[in-house]
Amino acid sequence: MDGISIEKIYNQAIELLMLYGPKFILAILVLIIGWWLIGRIANMAEKSMNKVKFEVGLTHFLVSFISVILKVLLLISVASMIGIETTSFIAMLGAAGLAVGMALQGSLANFAGGVLILFFKPFKVGDVIEAQGYMGKVVEIQIFVTVLLTYDNEKIIIPNGTLSNGCVKNKFAEPTHRVAIEFGISYGDDVHKARDVLMSVLDDYDLVLKDIEDKKPTVHVSQHGESHIGMLVWAWVESDNYWPVYFGLYERVKIAFDAADITIPFPQRDVHIHQFPGK
């Protein structure tokens, strides 16, 4: 009886080997070759993205995403080749994905925002942007957050979901920028003289652009205030020179106004004391 049992087991083993052996070997070959092909596809995709100068963060993310998706599809195909039922497995993956998505709605929104920012490039690393009440230089664009460095050297981390759905001001995206500053003069000063002084300051400032037809410096009377006449200065500069010109004009105009005896008014009050007889 023992001999018969061993013989049956042996025969069944041979049958199973003959039935599933070729499938198993073929599945292993498909897995090895497919894994190698996925690596080649990922490398080709990365080289193509580098040629068209995709953002580094977006390139790494897309290559990783493509590689993971292809590997998951490969494993499902291999499992089906050796007779494993994949329908329930795929259903479980879908249910798990839905549960994870429900739990991580905020993170997924930030993830989607990061993809949109990296793909459409409303700003890039090195740009100065103003968003969510903060202004600073973009030092890093990650998948979930964007990191800014303010002029005070403070690091600001803003979720990408908020950035992609809100207003973002890219301060110096264009090669030139307009500096707009209003200087006040006294009502007793000559407006034409003040304009000439301001134009002289602009003409003598080498960082102010003067050769571009629609970007020449101008001076305008901007308002009649309670205690001053507003003189608005528009000066076009290269974007890298915005802050030096912005602060430099205040100093140069003060010196020029003092030399020309033009008054920069400041708030003041006249106090009148009345004396009444018998008091």
Automatic annotation (TrEMBL):
Which key words are in the record? Cell inner membrane, Cell membrane, Ion channel, Ion transport, Membrane, Transmembrane, Transmembrane helix, Transport
Name the Pfam families for this protein: MS_channel_1st (PF21088), MS_channel_1st_1 (PF05552), MS_channel_2nd (PF00924), MS_channel_3rd (PF21082)
Q: Is this entry keyworded Transmembrane helix?
A: yes
Q: Where in the cell is the protein located?
A: Cell inner membrane; Cell membrane
Question: Membrane-spanning residues where?
Answer: 20-38, 58-84, 90-120
Q: How does it sit in the membrane?
A: Multi-pass membrane protein
Query: Where is the Mechanosensitive ion channel MscS domain positioned along the sequence?
Result: 107-170
Segments forming domain Mechanosensitive ion channel MscS C-terminal? 180-264
Main localization category: membrane
Mechanosensitive ion channel transmembrane helices 2/3 domain span: 66-105
Assembly state and interactors? Answer: Homoheptamer.
Described by its record, this protein's role is as follows: Mechanosensitive channel that participates in the regulation of osmotic pressure changes within the cell, opening in response to stretch forces in the membrane lipid bilayer, without the need for other proteins. Contributes to normal resistance to hypoosmotic shock. Forms an ion channel of 1.0 nanosiemens conductance with a slight preference for anions.
Indicate the family of this protein. Answer: Belongs to the MscS (TC 1.A.23) family.
Protein's name according to its UniProt entry: Small-conductance mechanosensitive channel
Q: Which organism is it from?
A: Pseudoalteromonas gelatinilytica
Name the lineage. Bacteria, Pseudomonadati, Pseudomonadota, Gammaproteobacteria, Alteromonadales
